[in-house]
Design a protein that fits this description.
alpha/beta, Nucleotidyltransferase, domain 5, eight-stranded mixed β-sheet, 15 helices
Length: 399
């Protein structure tokens, strides 16, 4: 069974074609600058075929999907003889609200529900819907499945997801903490249980998904019981360009003083804040590390803030779960920055955490980076959201 995994953004589209008999990626790629001039990088992973990396006209996502299909089936770059070899498509969808606690086969009622959830994720859900419709237009009746970033967090109890505002705003308008990165947290927590050789139902885990967007999740018995992102992905940790937790009074003060509209204010909080705003250097943690090494105090402050917030939130989840068995680092920063991992773990001496420096220097593999006698285990686990999407799609379609 071959499954095409689609992750559609507003002007981009990532994809992987996975053979589910072996769970091997047989092709992957990225369409960029959709609606502008268009560029496609397509990488076959089998058969010694050439990489395609050129500009391609993509006025809409429909042309992007058509370009992907063309390369998947072409003689020079292709990995399948025809689209009949592709049995199903799995789509990443950012926001499912309270309507979806698991992945679902896409039909007209699901599409209507996705439209209803669009106000909760106005920058993300429309792109996801566009990607689904583009696939339908090009691929016809091939079955499709939606896998939601928010679904994993639907197990949070009311005490964790409810905001302390008048309750009718939750009942009437759905204002609550939803959380994101659920597919990633779900994958790495299950993989951690495998590495520990224990049933996930017996474990208390803290998953730190750290990249340009970052969130932490408390996972008790395989279920999300709290997470740092909220109604939107803006809150929680200070991120690449997002502010993280912020007193709402700051928003009112700045809007009144500088005459910002709400859209201008949200643009500042989403795109000009975080470690970029504090450092004035970059939203890329590699650039911050380089600047800090040269003595840039604001770059160091941005790093220190990030490490502090991760440790503070993770520490609060130890209290929330009344203990922790393992801490997981994943995503771009979590998987690649040994300095960041060490700086965060330095806060966990009270938990008996001890880091193996040689293990912590490695990257790109599942590895325990704590010492054998560390009371709490620490793992680096590269995330694989595409594989989760493909597995869910296979299970639902019945391959």
């Amino acid at each position: 069974m071959k499954i095409l995994v689609i992750n559609a953004g507003s002007s981009s589209l990532k994809y992987q074609l996975i053979d589910m008999e072996t769970e091997q990626v047989i092709a992957k790629g990225l369409c960029e600058r959709i609606g502008i001039d268009g560029h496609l990088k397509h990488t076959p992973m089998i058969g010694g075929k050439s990489v395609f990396n050129e500009d391609v006209a993509m006025p809409t996502h429909a042309e992007a999907i058509a370009a992907v299909i063309d390369k998947l089936t072409s003689e020079e770059y292709g990995v399948v003889s025809s689209m009949k070899e592709i049995d199903a498509v799995g789509h990443r969808v950012v926001h499912g609200g309270e309507k979806f606690a698991c992945s679902v086969k896409i039909d007209d009622s699901v599409m209507a529900a996705l439209e209803e959830c669009t106000p909760f994720a106005p920058l993300h859900n429309p792109a996801n819907i566009t990607g689904i419709n583009a696939c339908k237009a090009v691929m016809g009746d091939v079955p499709m499945v939606a896998v939601f970033d928010t679904a994993f967090h639907q197990t949070m109890p009311g005490k964790a997801f409810t905001y302390a505002i008048p309750y009718e705003y939750y009942k009437n308008d759905g204002i609550r903490r939803y959380g994101f990165h659920g597919t990633s947290h779900r994958y790495v927590s299950a993989r951690c249980a495998e590495l520990m050789g224990k049933p996930i139902e017996e474990l208390k885990l803290i998953s730190c998904h750290m990249g340009n967007g970052s969130s932490i999740c408390a996972i008790d018995g395989g279920k999300s019981v709290d997470t740092s992102m909220g109604f939107t992905p803006l809150v929680g940790l200070p991120m690449g360009t997002r502010c993280g937790d912020l007193d709402a009074g700051v928003i009112q003060f700045l809007m009144n003083k500088y005459g910002f509209s709400i859209d201008e204010m949200l643009n500042i909080l989403n795109k000009k804040s975080g470690v970029l705003g504090v450092s004035g250097v970059s939203s890329d943690f590699r650039d911050l590390d380089a600047a800090a090494e040269k003595g840039d105090e604001r770059a160091q402050l941005a790093l220190d803030m990030f490490h502090y917030w991760v440790a503070k939130v993770a520490g609060s989840y130890v209290a929330a779960m009344n203990g922790v068995d393992a801490i997981i680092f994943t995503a771009g920063v979590g998987e690649n920055s040994r300095e960041t991992r060490q700086a965060i773990c330095d806060y966990f001496g009270y938990l008996g955490v001890a880091i193996d420096q040689e293990a912590n220097s490695k990257r790109g593999e599942d590895i325990m980076i704590s010492t054998p006698d560390s009371k709490v285990k620490v793992f680096v686990i590269p995330t694989n959201e595409e594989l989760v999407i493909a597995r869910d799609t296979k299970d639902i379609i019945g391959g």
